[in-house]
């Protein structure tokens, strides 16, 4: 059982997936920083020095005995921007990878149509087995 697990764990697909998850996590942090530290401040400035991360709808004020309850829709807006940027970057990456892949060569036809009866016959046939006409 340990041998089977070792074979599974070191397969190329599993290792590729692990590397992808690790790189994806790091990429997500970079994109979050890009959105929060680079993109949102100018947008907030254009919208009247608004800080999206502080936008919230307060449902219950904080008291001495209970914490406050708020819907933090500004953080949700930041998260949507994070997702959009990550999705667009992944789209561009996949598009480039697909462009670099070589298309398989087209398969040669194995059959042809008889010019008299239009039935499908082997490409190398010299006589149609259906109508017995001679083929050129």
* Overall pLDDT level: 83
- Overall geometric form: elongated
Q: In angstroms, what separates the terminal alpha carbons?
A: 63 Å
CATH topology term of the largest domain: Non-ribosomal Peptide Synthetase Peptidyl Carrier Protein, Chain A
Q: Could you name the ranges where pLDDT drops below 50 across 5 or more consecutive residues?
A: none
Portion in helices: 40-55%
Q: Please give the radius of gyration in angstroms.
A: 31 Å
Largest sheet: 2 strands, antiparallel
Name the CATH class of the largest domain.
Mainly Alpha
What would you call the structural class?
Answer: mainly alpha
How many E-type strands? Answer: 4
- What is the name of the CATH architecture of the largest domain? Orthogonal Bundle
Task: Tell me the count of domains.
Answer: 2
Order of helices and strands: HHEEHEE
Number of helices: 3
Features:
Non-ribosomal Peptide Synthetase Peptidyl Carrier Protein, Chain A, 2 domains, mainly alpha, 3 helices, single chain, two-stranded antiparallel sheet, 136 residues
């Amino acid at each position: 059982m340990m041998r089977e697990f070792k074979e599974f764990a070191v397969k190329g697909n599993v290792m590729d997936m692990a590397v992808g998850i690790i790189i994806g996590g790091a990429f997500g942090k970079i994109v979050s920083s890009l959105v929060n530290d680079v993109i949102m401040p100018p947008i907030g400035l254009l919208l009247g020095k608004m800080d999206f991360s502080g936008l919230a709808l307060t449902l219950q004020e904080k008291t001495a005995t209970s914490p406050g309850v708020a819907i933090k829709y500004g953080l949700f807006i930041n998260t949507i921007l994070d997702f959009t940027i990550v999705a667009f970057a992944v789209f561009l990456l996949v598009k480039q990878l697909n462009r670099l892949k070589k298309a398989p060569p087209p398969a040669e036809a194995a059959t042809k149509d008889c010019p008299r009866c239009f039935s499908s016959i082997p490409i190398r046939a010299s006589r149609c087995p259906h109508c017995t006409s001679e083929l050129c």
